[in-house]
Amino acid sequence: MALVTPSRVRWPAKPSRGSSRRDRRCSKPASSWRNTTASGNWFSNCSASPNRSAIGSCGTPNRKRKELKKNSLEGLLAAEILWDIEALLGRQTLDDLDLEALESAVRRQALRLAARAIEQRLNADHSDGEPSPRVCPCGQLARYAGRREKTFTSALGPLKLERAYYHCAGCGQGFCPRDWQLGLQDTSLSPAVTRMVAAVGAMVSFEEGSQLLQELAGIPVNAKQVERTAEALGAEIATDEKQDVAPSDEQPLPPTLYLGVDGTGVPMRPEELKGRCGKQPDGSAKTREGKLCTVWSAEARDTEDRPVRDPGSVSYTAAIESAATLDTDAVPAAFTQRVLREASRRRFTHAHRTVVMGDGAPWIWKIAQELFPHAIQIVDRFHVKQTLSTLAKAVYGSDSPQAHRWARRRHGELDAGRFPDLLRAVRRHADTCDDARKCFQYLRRNRDRMRYPQFEAQGLCTSTGVVEAGCKVVIGTRLKRAGMHWTIRGSNAIIALRCSRLSGRFQDFWERRADARKAA
Ligand SMILES: [Zn+2]
User: How many Cα neighbours within 13 Å face the side chain of 388?
Assistant: First the structure.
């Protein structure tokens, strides 16, 4: 029989002298942390260099234990945890050990002890409460109104903190200066938990995120809280992204930089679609277009010496916003400005050679022409081949071998630069198939952007699928899952959060956020 199972793990009551537990090999320090801390001076004796020798010393003699109690918070915590482990293990052999139950129980207990220690340390410090009034954010004076208790969800479990509270008669609001100091203002989640929520909220549905937090970290944050917190943080990131446009010189500038632009439909709630035309049979819309700008380099070569995307070189920025700038507009469209910001951060125009890549949609080339007139324009070859394969299925039926053959030949013509042959083959179906007519126009309109043999000879990357994949990675995998319907505000927040994390920018944002709080 297993020694402990999750349902059976119970933290033993602290033994009294002479109880059987006292006989255990590693007994508890003479005084429990509860007794010690109750006197309120646990921390005043905290040593800067705790007595590490005390940690892990099962069977510590009484003298040692007394030193421990006196000298070190860390030592006390360690001894407390060790005592509990021994209490759980008892005299059983390791053959019977349920390690998972032990791990979970010890982690819970260790965190609980740490949380109590932090509570006591913070609650003993009353330096945040001066009798003199403080300036309220509204500008008027707020008077000290005693200490208020609030329980926060932390990575260590619940933290019950007492903070000085100030009330402003002018605006009727109250505030706790310490909440600002600790990053706890307007939230019940600690900074570490907020960061965990951002991590799960960026990757999975809010419901799954809530479950993951419980399962992995034992932290109860319900789905609605995950949603609110992740979206609030995403909105902060979106604002930060607009301000943080300084060129990053962390990585050397590669000789060639690629900038890709693409769009993908994001499923929306009906209220976000009122009056909008779309692709539904009745002319209505179910989605709004999320637009993505991605920058990367491709100096690496595959086994056949073709350029491939450099790992870690990709950055993303995206949002549901307009890309249409009218001639009468005083400023460029929101998405055009976004592309400019990304180009600035990545020093795009500083590269010796620049390439703009897209799927062939006219709005993309309009932006490219406007912002980067010297860049080489290339239609992502992956996308052209996909278009030709789709057309083959439309003409010959989706599973027909003829469709396969036809598509393969067209791909070959595209690769070999036999553009007249390709155009002729597509045109042959234009009279009878509307898709073929559109495809013909698409090929003819973009033919200069499909000179693949020439691009290859120049060592350029033409078919990485990076742009297309970017839409899937940034938007599709998180926002286009079954049953999901978004608001513009919510989807843009989560997109901003994902772009920040996927581009390796989250840590920088987090540090800026902490600095801003300290400066406030
Ligand atoms: Zn006020």
Answer: 24
Ligand 1 centroid to 516 CA: how many Å?
21
Evaluate whether 86 touches 25 at the Cβ level (below 8 Å).
yes
Cα–ligand 1 centroid distance for 243 (angstroms): 29
Residues 161 and 200 in one domain: no
Residue pair 74/54 in contact by the 8 Å Cβ criterion: no
Residue 89: per-residue pLDDT: 74
Q: Tell whether 25 and 77 lie within a shared domain.
A: yes
Mean pLDDT for each consecutive 10-residue tract of the chain (520 residues)?
38 37 34 33 34 37 51 73 77 76 86 92 93 91 95 97 96 94 93 96 95 95 96 96 89 93 91 82 85 94 88 93 83 94 96 93 92 95 92 92 95 95 95 94 95 94 78 90 91 96 94 84
CA of 235 to the centre of ligand 1 (A): 25
Distance from Cα 178 to the centre of ligand 1, integer Å: 17
Q: How far is the CA of 137 from the centre of ligand 1 (A)?
A: 6
- In this structure, the answer to whether residues 77 and 141 fall within a common structural domain is no
Instruction: Determine the distance separating the centroid of ligand 1 and the alpha carbon of 171, expressed in angstroms.
Output: 4
| Distance separating alpha carbons of residues 379 and 428, to the nearest angstrom | 23
DSSP 8-state secondary structure symbol assigned to residue 428:
T
* pTM over the 0.70 mark: yes
Distance 158 CA to ligand 1 centre (A): 30
Query: Looking at the domain assignment, is residue 463 inside a domain?
Result: no
Residue 488: phi and psi, rounded to 5, are -60, -45
Q: Are residues 58 and 93 in the same domain?
A: yes
pLDDT at 92: 67
> Quick one: 66 and 164 in the same domain?
no
**Which pLDDT score is estimated for 62?**
55
Q: Which residue has the tokens 């992502």?
A: 380
- pLDDT (0 to 100) of residue 11: 38
Query: How far apart (Å, rounded) are the C-alpha atoms in residues 251 and 400?
Result: 49
Q: How many domains is the chain built from?
A: 3
Shared domain check, 13 and 120: yes
Is residue 381 situated within a structural domain? no
**Confidence (pLDDT) at 99:** 85
Within 10 angstroms of residue 302's Cβ, the number of other Cβ atoms is 8
One-letter amino acid of 381: R
**What angle separates helix 381-396 from helix 434-445, to the nearest 10 degrees?**
160
Residues near 205 by beta carbon (within 8 Å), at least 6 away in sequence: 481, 484
Q: What is the pLDDT of residue 91?
A: 67
Neighbours of 145 (CB within 10 A): 13
Q: Which two structure tokens, joined as six digits, stand for 482?
A: 């079954």
Rounded to 5 degrees, what angle do the CA atoms 336, 337, 338 make? Answer: 90
Q: Give residue 194's pLDDT.
A: 96
Would you say residue 15 lies in a domain? yes
- Ligand 1 center to residue 133 CA distance, Å? 12
- Assess if residue 44 is contained within a domain: yes
Question: Are 142 and 214 members of one domain?
Answer: no
Q: Do 54 and 152 have their domain in common? A: no
Show the domain range for 140.
Answer: 134-182
